Amino acid sequence: MCVSNVETQPGPRNRTHIADTPVTIRNWYKHVNWWGVVLTILVPLIACVQVIWVPLQFPTALLSLVYYFVTGLGITAGYHRLWSHTSYRASNSLKVFLALCGAGAGEGSIRWWARNHRAHHRYTDTNLDPYSVNKGLIYSHMGWLIMKQNPKRIGRVDISDLNEDPIVIWQHQHYLVVVIFMALLFPTLLSGLAWGDWAGGLIYAGILRMAFVHQATFCVNSLAHWLGDQPFNGTKSSRDHFLTALLALGEGYHNFHHEFPSDYRNATKWYQYDPTKWVIRIWECLGLAYDVKQFHPDEVHKRRIQQMHVLLAEEAATLDWGVPSSQLPVLEWEEYVEQAEKDGRCLIAVAGIVHDVTDFSKSHPGGMLMLKSVIGKDATAAFNGGVYSHSKVAHNLLATMRVASVRGGCEVEIWKKHQHNDADTISPMCQ
């Protein structure tokens, strides 16, 4: 999400780009992208000072608000969802409208903006991401605009479709003229000719309105990768949050967007704030937009469920589920029986696992006598319904009392061991 239309050209092959050199006291000014500083910092600051002498008239305030939404939609519905992700197709009249409105936001040409945004999606959170949040929240917000980047360090993407779009190419080639007119002259002329507020039109509806659109868009690069939930994918930094959606005309449901980038929506729920989605739907009803892409609800729900499983597994990993069976020491059945009541211990075997219920015996809901009756024996059947069908909670609690496993699983091993000597007197007791 960009401000300048100038793409830095690589220098001679044997020359190191300034961005790849350390910042020092002597060369710091060479690292600065001065066009980015002027457009995103100095010009808005000058406008803020002018506010002292230029009163805000109500018609100008209304124009500023309306033009904020119009130019914002030029970015969200045009630059982003139409050209960057081809979420839908638009008539030529709508494309011209969006190209002009997007230029009014002052964020660069469609071609330049979409190229960077496609790189952001393809190389999210890597060094090839032009505004990776891993380089810092401030850097992802606007630091990447005010500091020079080596164009060779930005990941390669395919923009052949943009190069074949005559409206994109026209806007790119004439961007300077278009942006000056749409971002500054148009609101100035409208407010000046309509109600005589020339200065207010330039300051409020022009410069400050553009600055607010910039900051709202920048929030998608920064806040949307830092603030909120991750209901669809936790491996990347993108997040969903209502605040970011409110600032950026619905673009704040960013975790969904990074999982389903070609979907024309950012918000899937009817109550979630996504005016860009609503406007695209209206255009579709009017025949201005068509081939609107939307993932099947089952696919969206599957990803949500998969991510829920991941989150539940992470939460489960913080709990005590007992020592894994594979890590328990192995006892012969005779050793288990011998140690079952030794030194006041109370050991029982359930499903081939020895459990130390000494501390739990006094609080056993079924009484201490019930436990004593199976000490040193195979209590599998009793635990699983022979006496009482224990709950899942009981199973979980019992797992935390594991101390050993029985070789072979139960008393049948005694029978197998001695069947060739005394098969008639020793019978299997595994239940």
Q: Could you characterize what this model shows?
A:
This protein has 431 residues and is mainly alpha-helical. The chain is 51% helix and 4% strand. The protein contains 19 helices and six strands. The chain has a four-stranded mixed β-sheet. A two-stranded antiparallel ribbon has the order 1-2. A hairpin with a 2-residue loop joins strand 4 and strand 5 (353-356).
Q: Give the radius of gyration.
A: 34 Å
User: Can you count the beta strands?
Assistant: 6
Strand order of the largest sheet: 3-6-5-4
Low-confidence stretches: 1-12, 413-431
Taken from the alpha-carbon principal axes, the silhouette is elongated
EC number: 1.14.19.1
Keywords: Electron transport, Fatty acid biosynthesis, Fatty acid metabolism, Heme, Iron, Lipid biosynthesis, Lipid metabolism, Membrane, Metal-binding, Oxidoreductase, Transmembrane, Transmembrane helix, Transport
Organism: Aspergillus bertholletiae
Cofactor: Fe(2+)
List the helices and strands and how they pair.
Elements: H1 28-31, H2 34-50, H3 58-84, E1 89-90, H4 92-104, H5 110-122, H6 137-146, H7 160-163, H8 166-173, H9 175-195, H10 198-221, H11 242-247, H12 254-259, H13 275-285, E2 289-290, H14 297-316, E3 330-331, H15 333-339, E4 347-350, E5 353-356, H16 368-372, H17 380-383, H18 392-399, E6 402-406, H19 412-422
Parallel strand pairs: 3-6
Antiparallel strand pairs: 1-2, 4-5, 5-6
Helix pairs in contact: 2-10, 3-4, 3-5, 3-10, 4-9, 9-10
